[in-house]
Protein: Aspartokinase
Organism: Compostibacter hankyongensis
Amino acid sequence: MKVFKFGGASLTGIDQIRNVAGIIRPFSGTELVVVVSAIGQTTNELEKVAIHYYRRQRETAARLLQNIKQSHLEIAEALLRDPEHAAIECMRRFFTEAEWRLGEKPYLPFDYYYDQLVSLGELLSSIIVSAYLKDEGIGNEWLDVRSVLRTDATYRDAQVDWPYSSQQMTEKVLPLLRQHGLLLTQGFIGSTAEGHTTTLGREGSDYTAALFTNMLNAESLTIWKDVEGLKNADPKLFADTISIREINYREVIEMAYYGARVIHPKTIKPLQNKKIPLYVKCFLDPELPGTVIHEGDHSRQLPPLIVLKQKQVLLTITSRDFSFITEDKISDIYDIFHGLNIHINLTQNGAISFSCCIEHDGEKIERLIKTLHRDFSVNYHEGLELLTIRHYQPELLESFTAGRTLLLEQRAPQTVQFVLK
Ligand SMILES: Nc1ncnc2c1ncn2[C@@H]1O[C@H](COP(=O)(O)OP(=O)(O)O)[C@@H](O)[C@H]1O
Ligand SMILES: N[C@@H](CC(=O)OP(=O)(O)O)C(=O)O
């Protein structure tokens, strides 16, 4: 049994969905779980719907939802060729439910409504793909992932209930697989025990696919991307990137931790724990070899692995009375970040100061600085980049910083990090 994951980039329109069907077809009749994300940028568009809804800008929210409805129905009608198709009726029902939701006055926290609305993207894409595959003679069963993937109620960052979900996989998903061969389901979303929809964090479909792979003891997971495989840097940000044919889990989890936006950071653990290989393949040219991520020590053959995080802010937090920043103060500082759910990308301690690099998120930073100001003075620089290079060659480092202002540098034998303006 294998698991495939197709992200938004592989499902941007009619031709792309046809291409995905072409990739799946040869596996027809074998046991295969296909996890899909929302079409193209739908999640970003749904986020806007949720924001306007919560601000009580109902008309704008409804207009944005209408655009999403139109584009999805256009794709479905073109692929399925029958406006009365049961799948289209089902999509309309989902939209009616969302429209009805926009009419309600919000009384719960934003994150709850976010998940109820944003999850629509994966439900729609999976309905379209499943129905199209069936019409093309590729038998499959549409599975509502919320019936098997249980989470807690941490909306937008829901934590998976492993024992319950694993049991569902064995008792429900396995028999369905045995019966239908191909299952088509959604990434990124889950459900609480009370039946409320949750999401696992942006770009979380890779993680869903890894959960299925682990819990079903599949032989492999293949993530289909628009790149030829894993590269030593994001080809959208760097020229002359090098393709990596083979790499171990450890290196990829490090890359993801430092912010490489190619595989969701939580994806590796479920695979590593059962030593199941992860293939990154190109949906634009499935014949290309791609990358295999598995156990083993390949770090000696690796090129420098480069990760660039943009839109960073460097905060320098200083004690007002020249007292040392000792463990208790650091603990207080971390509590403040944790309380505001702000992730720290890099830290550096001084005698009376603590510096850290975080993502730019205007509203959260304002609240952070206000809270820190009670006990510390705070300096900050915005519009920065955090560059991480693993397996660096010291003689080449200057080329990365030439002509830039270097605000902070950290060097260890394997990894160097620069905060640059
Ligand atoms: N090290 C890397 N190797 C390959 N691609 C990378 C890397 N770092 C970032 N990327 C980016 O990841 C993109 C693919 O991921 P993403 O757009 O999230 O796909 P999907 O929506 O299918 O999940 C590529 O287009 C590429 O720009
Ligand atoms: N659609 C969700 C989940 C996801 O993983 O998407 P993608 O596979 O396109 O990155 C998001 O955009 O966050």
